[in-house]
């Protein structure tokens, strides 16, 4: 089994199309197809169900996909480790992050990293924390910046960076705008603007109401912080958000109140890493920009 065969297999699995996979890998389709057939012969199993316009993974193909990601990531880490011994930092680093984590300011951090290590190619994708940790578990991301309550999922380890409190945001004309602090009981009849279920803040909010054995109405569900703030500005609902969101310029004019009560959960920002594999030299270099040498939390704070 060759690494090149695994790379072609992953491309076909993700593109679900041989022609697009060949274009992505910059090889002739005939060569890619021959590699897939050789891999299937080596494994004595069909990896794809071929349709006229697409392909789908078989059960064997799905089983191989997760292992292929991990194998390719380990091979890349091995190459990078050898390069690091020679005094070089090269290779690629795939990073995922949830939006507006506040305590992590990725644009200047990644710009500084690129200046320090021009031989490393960085790829960044934004998604909800749930999706990011799943991609970490599958070996598709090297490093993730997430906000997840509770213990780390299987296959993932979390390095805590900072903890922030959840706060209420409401329109200045809302009935709760006179309060400096609110509890869950004050919010039972409200319409909520909230993030999708994959976001860390949404999971914290769901846990807070579950602990209070209380239901709530999420009338608007968004995937963007500024859109959430737009809806609150229009007084279409209230929002429970991490404290850094209340300090964003776009939140100016809204009323912010603390969320009190023993049932309220904190918003924990962490670095997510594969549990079974080291981050590699490039990953370690990025982590040193997040934490000081002593290992405590650090990083650029962003309002």
UniProtKB/TrEMBL annotation:
The keyword DNA-binding applies. InterPro entries: HTH-type_LysR_regulators (IPR050950), LysR_HTH_N (IPR000847), LysR_subst-bd (IPR005119), WH-like_DNA-bd_sf (IPR036388), WH_DNA-bd_sf (IPR036390). Residues 1-58 form the HTH lysR-type domain. GO terms for molecular function: DNA binding; DNA-binding transcription factor activity. GO terms for cellular component: cytosol. It comes from the Bacteria. The keyword Hydrolase does not apply. Keywords: DNA-binding, Transcription, Transcription regulation. Transmembrane segments: none annotated. Signal peptide: none annotated. PANTHER family: BLR3139 PROTEIN (PTHR30419:SF31), HTH-TYPE TRANSCRIPTIONAL REGULATOR YBHD (PTHR30419). Belongs to the LysR transcriptional regulatory family. This is Transcriptional regulator. It comes from Paractinoplanes toevensis.
């Amino acid at each position: 089994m060759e690494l090149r065969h695994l790379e072609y297999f992953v491309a076909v699995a993700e593109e679900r199309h041989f022609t697009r996979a060949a274009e992505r890998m910059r090889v002739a389709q005939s060569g890619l197809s021959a590699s897939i057939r050789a891999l299937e012969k080596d494994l004595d199993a069909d990896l794809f169900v071929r349709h006229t316009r697409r392909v789908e993974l078989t059960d064997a193909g799905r089983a191989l996909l997760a292992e292929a990601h991990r194998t390719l990531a380990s091979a890349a880490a091995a190459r990078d480790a050898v390069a690091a011994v020679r005094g070089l930092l090269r290779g690629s680093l795939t990073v995922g992050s949830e939006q507006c984590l506040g305590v992590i300011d990725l644009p200047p951090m990644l710009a500084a990293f690129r200046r320090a290590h021009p031989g490393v190619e960085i790829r960044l994708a934004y998604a909800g924390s749930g999706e990011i940790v799943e991609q970490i578990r599958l070996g598709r991301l090297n490093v993730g910046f997430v906000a997840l309550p509770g213990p780390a999922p299987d296959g993932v380890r979390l390095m805590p960076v900072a903890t922030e409190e959840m706060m209420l945001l409401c329109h200045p004309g809302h009935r709760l705008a006179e309060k400096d602090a609110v509890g869950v009981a004050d919010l039972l009849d409200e319409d909520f603007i909230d993030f999708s279920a994959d976001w860390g803040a949404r999971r914290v909010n769901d846990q807070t109401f579950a602990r209070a054995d209380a239901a709530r109405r999420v009338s608007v569900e968004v995937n963007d912080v500024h859109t959430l703030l737009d809806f609150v500005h229009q007084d279409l609902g209230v929002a429970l958000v991490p404290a850094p969101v209340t300090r964003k310029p776009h939140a100016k004019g809204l009323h912010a109140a603390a969320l009190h009560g023993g049932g309220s959960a904190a918003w924990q920002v962490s670095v997510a890493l594969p549990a079974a594999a080291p981050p590699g030299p490039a990953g370690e270099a990025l982590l040193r920009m997040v934490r000081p040498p002593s290992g405590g939390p650090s990083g650029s704070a962003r309002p």
